[in-house]
Amino acid sequence: MTENTEPTEYPLGENPENVETPAGVAMSEITLEALAEGDVAGEDIRITPETLERQAKIAEESNRPQVAENFRRAAELTRVPDERILEIYNALRPSGADKDQLLEIADELETEYDAEVNAAHVREAAEMYEKRDLY
Q1: The CATH number of the domain covering residues in 81-135
Q2: Which of 29, 37, 46, 105 has the most Cβ atoms closer than 10 angstroms to its Cβ?
């Protein structure tokens, strides 16, 4: 089953056969019984970028562009290792990193992870921190 990126009615969870995990398991197949029997791995309960994109399209259709952008940022972050996300999160705290470090993070997000929306977000934070003298 290949996950469709076309918008569907919200919430997607009400149509679990149309939502897949990164391993290609349909959400409808993830049950407590399957978990208890070891038929479902940790990777099977992670969200996919395709599902997040579908959520973004639903948000856009509902005239919620900011929510759509958040889903797209989340979709990009599925390509970034969890440990690195936590490091970036800490760097984005005021006084967590200097401007050059944040700009390096933005370049990394863009070049290594093809996370252009997140890179723009980090660059914007770098500029705002400078304007507000938060470094």
Answers
A1: 1.10.1510.20
A2: 105
Which whole-number Å values give the CA distances from 87 to 2, 91, 93, 96, 102, in the listed order?
33, 6, 10, 10, 11
The residue ranges of every structural domain in the chain are: 1-78, 81-135
* Local confidence band at 10 (pLDDT 50, 70, 90 cut-offs): low
Q: List, in order, residues 6 or more apart from 8 with CB less than 8 Å away.
A: 15, 18, 54, 58
Amino acid, single-letter form, for residue 117: V
32 has a pLDDT exceeding 50? yes
**Which residues lie below 8 Å from residue 59, measured CB to CB, with a gap of 6+?**
65, 67, 68, 71
* Look-up of token digits 């919430």: 11
CA–CA gap between residue 38 and residue 19 (Å, rounded): 20
CA distance 123 to 52: 23
CB–CB of 72/117 below 8 Å?
yes
Q: Find where tokens 């399209």 sit.
A: 57
pTM (two decimals): 0.73
